[in-house]
Amino acid sequence: xxxxxxxxxxxxxSNISKSFDNKEVLRKIDLQxxxxxxxxxxxxxxxxxxxLLRIIAGLEAISSGSVTVNGQExxxxxxxxxxxxxxxxxxxxxxxxxxxxLGLKLDWQKKQIPKVLDQVGxxxxxQDWPSVLSGGQKQRVALARALIHEPQLxxxxxxxxxxxxxxxxxxxxxxxxxxxxxxxxxxxxxHDVEEAVALANRVLLVEAGEIVLDLPIRxxxxxxxxxxxxSKLVSQILNRIMGEKRNxxxxxxxxx
Length: 256
Ligand SMILES: Nc1ncnc2c1ncn2[C@@H]1O[C@H](COP(=O)(O)OP(=O)(O)OP(=O)(O)O)[C@@H](O)[C@H]1O
What we know:
Rossmann fold; 4-stranded antiparallel sheet; 6-stranded mixed sheet; 256 residues; globular; disordered C terminus; alpha/beta; binds adenosine-5'-triphosphate
């Protein structure tokens, strides 16, 4: 788990703003991410969550401010990061094995494909086409495709948004286990506050382009959904999103 000192800092956003066509969609964002953090970013549709993630991935330029990765100014793609999207982005004309191996040039990397498929529970499906997989299996392939590159930073843009509730819970367990085993740092954008509290050690709430809450979740892993604190955190974050007046972060820090 991340320490709270600056020594484990992997990512730092300092006073960043982003505008599209003169419309400011992110403003004055300061964020420090430590190695081992699992951060969930929640907020209403259009508040700027995905733009923030794309900036961290180096896929979107900032209008002002600075982004540093391990102390170095980010310039272009973030080489520590791999991103996983809601639609999985599998190539339908390539089998599972080849989707995972997409873009790999080196033999030792290709040799890791069976191991990574095993880690996501898809050893038996290596020679299947994406079209015969369930939604959850497709997202496991997408996860394997990110993990094969051994990223330090896993960026998850609403990756489970299209899955049914039970499959989502299975995927939460998988992602949490992999995060722990591989000592990843993860940033998850989600509409689902339950998912945020199930996985994250910090939940950020974005409102109209600003981080208005950075809430530590100090519940032990694996998270127990029947823990009263769990439900209380979920409903309080939801209330905050829906506009209930809560003026101080400390109001929500139930697990301190
Ligand atoms: N490439 C772009 N060009 C112009 N405007 C953009 C672009 N990308 C995002 N925006 C705008 O920036 C704002 C934030 O978009 P963003 O996708 O980051 O929000 P979000 O919180 O992820 O939304 P959702 O939850 O619906 O995915 C929106 O008003 C959106 O229309």
